[in-house]
Design goal:
The structure is a homodimer of 99-residue chains.
Chain A: E1 2-8, H1 15-30, E2 35-43, E3 52-58, H2 61-67, H3 70-76, E4 86-97
Antiparallel strand pairs in A: 1-3, 1-4, 2-3
Helix pairs in contact in A: 1-3
Chain lengths: 99, 99
């Protein structure tokens, strides 16, 4: 299992525009082989550098890479996405603790 | 439940120094009322902007704020932490999907 974490810069006035775009991409990715769940986080802190953070699990790095295909690229190539800078990277969980 | 996400800038040569500091703070925070679990993620992507991301759950924003007390501040005031810029913020999960 691997984890894709993507941090998004979203101005407060742009929440709805961001959510509309996010919903399109999320629906597409959830249809892909190896998708294993995701949580979209919205900041409650004021002045958060990244107001939205998506944490998604994939069965493998290969599944995740394959899902970022032409269909994905067409979705994120829309001009509307240019408003939202994002910082995506792939991660492994190296330490996990329960309460 | 609230989620604290903290993204850390860690040069590749500094992994061990970061992990030693992280372990001290993590042990401290896990002893606090309202701590509800955490996962430390390490990037597998090359050139990730943030090579470590901690995702921690707290029972409430108040618990999380109370845990960031003098003891916490003393730990993170160490000079060694200056090497590692971090971007912390508090979040709520606004969308959760299973595979």
């Amino acid at each position: 299992m691997v984890t894709l974490i993507n941090c998004f810069e979203v101005p407060e006035a742009a929440d709805q525009r961001f959510m509309d775009l996010y919903a399109q991409v999320n629906a597409y990715m959830r249809s892909k082989p190896g998708y294993a769940g995701n949580r979209l986080h919205k900041a409650t802190s004021e002045h958060a550098a990244y107001r939205y953070v998506n944490v998604a699990q994939w069965q493998s790095a290969e599944h995740c890479a394959a899902a970022h295909d032409d269909g994905f690229r067409n979705l994120v190539a829309k001009d509307e996405w240019k408003e939202f800078r994002s910082v995506p990277a792939l991660f492994e969980v190296i330490s996990e603790n329960q309460a």
